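fwd from M.: "can u put these together and see what the complex looks like"

so here's what she sent:
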Amino acid sequence: MLLACLITFFGLVITVYSIGYMADEEGLTRYYFFMLIFIGSMTGLVMSDNLFQLFIFWEMIGLCSYSLISFWYKRPEAVRSSIKAFLMTRIGDVCFLAGICLLYTSLGSFSFSYIINNIGKVPLSVLTASAFLILIGAVAKSAQLPLHTWLYSAMEAPTSVSAFLHSATMVKAGVYLIARSILLFGSLTALIPMWLPSILWIGTITAFIGATLALSTSDIKGVAAYSTISQIGFMFAALGTTSYSTSLFGWFAGLLHLVSHAFFQGLDFLLIGGIIQTVKTRDMRLMGGLRKAMPVTFGLSIIVMLARTGIPPLISFFSKELVIQSVLSSGNLYVTLLLYASTAITFAYTLRVITLVYIREKSDYLKKINLHEAPRIMLFSSGILAALCIVIGFFGNSISQLMRVNVEIGLNEVLNSSTLIFLFALFVGGLSIYLAYYRKPLLAEQVRHVFYPLNRILENGYFFDAFYEKIVAQGAILISASLKQFEISFLERIPYFFASRIISLARATQKYLDIFADELLYMATNKTLASVSKIKKMRFSSMEHYIAAALVGLLIILVLIILTMLR
Amino acid sequence: MFPYASWLVWALPIFSSLLIPLIARFSKNLRAYLAVAVSLIAMLLAFSMIPDVYFNTLENSDSSLP
């Protein structure tokens, strides 16, 4: 219900924003058509009370995403990105469908309430398979490792679409599905020992990798995309620590971070849309000095920075603190360290964006452009989100009450020793950017030079795309080529082989049949002729006997008649 | 809660999307305003459900397909 409010609210904000942002575009009928279907489908997804209905809406939002990514369908890159997003999410969708079908075969119902009440009847093997298949579905939809690369490519979509679908709402469907699955499987999650730890590790590694990628890219939308991937990783990590013994603390932390992230990331994308519209590029290396030309956007970007970093009393401070506390309570040191590192890098890349785009000197490229503030209607939408980013932190307890979770949210409840470590991590992240871009500008270049292999890995996005293109796609092409060759050289020859054999057989049969038939006919003819001659002989020799016997008989009859008359 | 809000909140935007091509024939501005109006109504419907959830009085608000 809370998510339905969130989705419809964002739907309204983004539609209003689109009036300004998409004003000069063609094909807006298609745009608004799919946007409205998306709003309805996403709301339907979170309002569903059964898995089948959820799956239908799940597919509908996938279709809307595909259509909206390729909104500028004349750009080959946009079309390629939409196909990539469509195919990668399809992997998850197939697994998700298989998972719910497995549950259905055991229980005969898709209803959440029925499944919750009868989950004990599901065999453990089916439960395990189903849980992991649903997890793959969620991983693909929420762009988590290793199926995360589509989200960066999806940035080819208009920024309003990126803000709504690929940041605030659609990518959260996977988080929602995991949260719902945890409730669905209930206490039986303990019987699937690898499930929750898998969610925890996928989230943690994605949070770290997403943050490092956001730090290395120079594409302003790329930073937002990788940031989204990273922050959803935080949500997954929190959900992975859920235990029924600790009153769903991790579960609530994950969902609260979902809500807070929707606000600041949505706001970030709206501001990016205004910047790109003004400077006509996504490359941050060509930007700089925008704080003077776009003061309102700069001010709102500071709010994004504070919110994304998690500065109190913004809502994201509470949500991040709860995420980290839930991870700390799991007792997993490596996960905790990785999340602290991700927090530090989050602050670093956010500060880097502010530095490159707004604070440093204006680039030569920007000096040629007439810079101006974004249109008022776009700033109005952004302003509403910014205000909510600040205000909603004070309604944390109401949110926990809405979710019916017994967690108190306030500075007194949240502040503890982990907060100090959290603030220290932020200090480390901020210090690195300060040194690299303010105090010693050459330091960044030197570090990049020294850690060249690491830099190359980051520039290539950990080679995930290369792996998919070179290994998976090329492998698939190779296999299909081999299968085609096999078909040409073997399968297609099978009918010819059999046909030629049948023809040979037929010819041989014909040949032998001809000989046999001739022989048979000859033999039959001979036999017939022999029989005829025999019959002939037999007929002519017997005729005389027949006539003689008939005459004798006639004679006897005549004698008898005469004798009778004489008497 | 507004009657059938749990149904209308998702059905209204989906079915209203079919009107977009129709409205676009008459006015480009009206097309955008229709999208905004539908989004606004959907949001109001969603928010109208909050009191019932908050005070735990939401009973039989089945939003599922029949």
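replying to her w this: The interface with chain A takes residues 6, 9-17, 20-21, 24, 28, 31-32, 34-36, 38-40, 42-43, 45-47, 49-50, 53-54, 56, 58, 62-65 of chain B (CB under 8 Å).
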